[in-house]
Specification:
This protein has 393 residues and is an alpha+beta fold. 62% of the residues lie in helices and 10% in strands. The chain has a 5-stranded mixed sheet, with helices on one face.
């Protein structure tokens, strides 16, 4: 929270919680300063002598009314100044209110008017000198005193105006930086959630395709033995349980505004063996040709390669159940080459297959983000999915 002196010099933006209290304190200080300065000027200007321009009680009354007029100086700075300046020709008590009005005008009015207002204040001092029957001091003393006090008030007001403008620009700049930072955070969060959504699609599509494959086998195998039925039911239960666990984990992350736990380890090339073993357990015939030389690859490349193979197995189980699937991983050049093929089953898959085509589009986007490219489509009597990924990134 800003201290009171700083809040008086540099007020907060409109509607700030402390604006009303700050304005009340500033009004009290302005009125008190005007009255105090005027009270000092009354004896100095010999306003109590018989030769004064007006009786001193009237002079004091004008000064008090002028100080009260300062309460509206914030809304009408130039008008208050124009009303008080002529009164300086007959009242020395109002001089304090005039200086406060000049100070306020210097903060809120364009600078080109301020020099003229200072001249008017000096001229009223000459008029006050001429209206006295027996001035106690020479006219140059009145001119000097009014010049020094007037332009000191104007100069201090201009300095404060520049300081407030600088503070306001810094405040706006800080707000812009904060807004930009929040925007970057939101974008990063959306990007991360999009990545989580892709992972959820890849994982759940594979799990549910295994469930569908086993359920289909149970539907057509009416002569299955109890052991086979038990194994298929167990595979369905395990796949469904794993799918629910993955879904629960992803939803838990999406519900968090700020992640409270680290991201779980993502699969890579070393996990392909388990992936193919699960596929074979579900009844798929999968052959793997692994020709990659020993070497380190980035986690991003390994995860992307795993998802490519996973999506290919999912598509094969969904669109060509029972088909022989061949998986090839090699590195003929500086790129990792992935090739997955399976035999086509007569007619193309029906249009009502859930998510038909979306998985391949997602794989294309994922591989492109990793710096590679994808090709897929029918080739002779087989469906081919090939991807090339940079080995090192």
């Amino acid at each position: 929270m800003s201290s009171l002196p700083f809040a008086l010099l540099v007020p907060g933006p409109p509607g700030h919680p402390g604006s009303a209290a700050r304005d009340r304190v500033a009004d009290i200080i302005a009125v008190a300063s005007a009255l105090a300065f005027g009270a000092v000027m009354v004896p100095l200007g010999d306003a109590t002598k018989p030769g004064a321009a007006i009786p001193w009680p009237v002079d004091v009354a004008i000064g008090i009314l002028g100080a009260a007029l300062l309460l509206v100086r914030r809304r009408h700075p130039l008008l208050v100044c124009l009303v008080l300046l002529p009164l300086g020709a007959i009242s020395v008590m109002v001089t304090g209110a005039v200086l406060v009005a000049l100070f306020t005008a210097a903060i809120r009015v364009r600078p080109r008017f301020l020099f003229l207002l200072g001249i008017v204040h000096i001229v009223t001092g000459v008029l006050y000198f001429l209206l006295q029957q027996d001035p106690p001091m020479d006219v140059w003393v009145d001119i000097s005193l009014r010049s020094i006090t007037a332009y000191a008030a104007i100069g201090w007001g201009l300095f404060l105006q520049a300081h407030r403008s600088l503070t306001q620009s810094l405040r706006l700049h800080a707000q812009q930086l904060e807004a930009e930072q929040n925007l970057r955070v939101d974008r990063a969060r959306l990007t991360e959630r999009a990545s989580i959504a892709r992972e959820m699609h890849d994982v759940l599509a594979h799990r549910m395709s295994m469930v569908s494959l086993h359920a289909g086998a149970l539907e057509v195998r009416t002569d299955a033995s109890p052991e086979e039925l038990s194994a298929a039911a167990r595979a369905i239960r395990i796949s469904a349980h794993e799918a629910l666990e993955e879904l629960r984990s992803v939803i838990g992350v999406l519900r968090q505004e700020e992640p409270l736990r680290p991201e779980p380890p993502q699969p890579g090339l070393n996990d392909l063996v388990d992936l193919l073993a699960n596929a074979r357990t579900s009844g798929m015939a999968v052959d793997l040709v692994y020709l990659l030389p020993p070497g380190h690859q980035s986690a991003d490349v390994g995860r992307t390669a795993y998802r490519v193979v996973q999506e290919a197995l999912t598509n094969a189980s969904k669109h060509a159940p029972g088909s022989q699937v061949e998986v090839l991983l090699d590195r003929p050049s500086d790129d990792l080459h992935i090739r997955v093929t399976n035999r086509l089953h007569g007619e193309p898959p029906p249009d009502d297959v859930p998510g038909a085509g979306t998985g391949l589009i997602g794989i294309g986007e994922r591989v492109a983000l990793a710096g590679g490219h994808v090709e897929y489509g029918p080739e002779n009597d087989r469906f081919r999915l090939e991807a090339w990924l940079p080995w090192h990134r």
